[in-house]
Amino acid sequence: QVQVVESGGGLVQPGGSLRLSCAASGSIRRIIAVGWYRQAPGKQRELVARINSGGSTNYADSVKGRFTISRDNAKNTVYLQMNSLKPEDTAVYYCYVQPTTAGYWGQGTQVTVSS
């Protein structure tokens, strides 16, 4: 069994920054990939950023140049640094950890960008 816990969300003003953390624990031998997704009220969940075991990353067009995904393999933790936040970034952010082709979701962390 794998547990996934996100943290770091909160309320921030437009133009501000937050760093989200995704910590995975349990029966993990390796991680194929980790993705950050978000879901705003009334919208579908969307991929924000993803990093694979080789370190390759990809980002949604809407966050390129503002968000950075990174990882600490020793801690089984992935981070999402979010800069220049906009009101449209407001959503619940979820982490999806893939020890195999199947994955595990965390419970989500709320990010609210508002003045």
Can you lay out the helices and strands and say which pair or pack?
Elements: E1 2-7, E2 10-12, E3 18-26, E4 33-39, E5 46-52, E6 57-59, E7 67-72, E8 77-82, E9 91-98, E10 104-105, E11 109-113
Parallel strand pairs: 2-11
Antiparallel strand pairs: 1-3, 3-8, 4-5, 4-9, 5-6, 7-8, 9-10, 9-11
Structure, explained:
By secondary structure, this protein is mostly beta strands. It is built from no helices and 11 strands. The protein has strands at 2-7, 10-12, 18-26, 33-39, 46-52, 57-59, 67-72, 77-82, 91-98, 104-105, 109-113. Strands 2, 4, 5, 6, 9, 10 and 11 form a 7-stranded mixed β-sheet that branches. The protein is globular. The N and C termini lie far apart (40 Å).
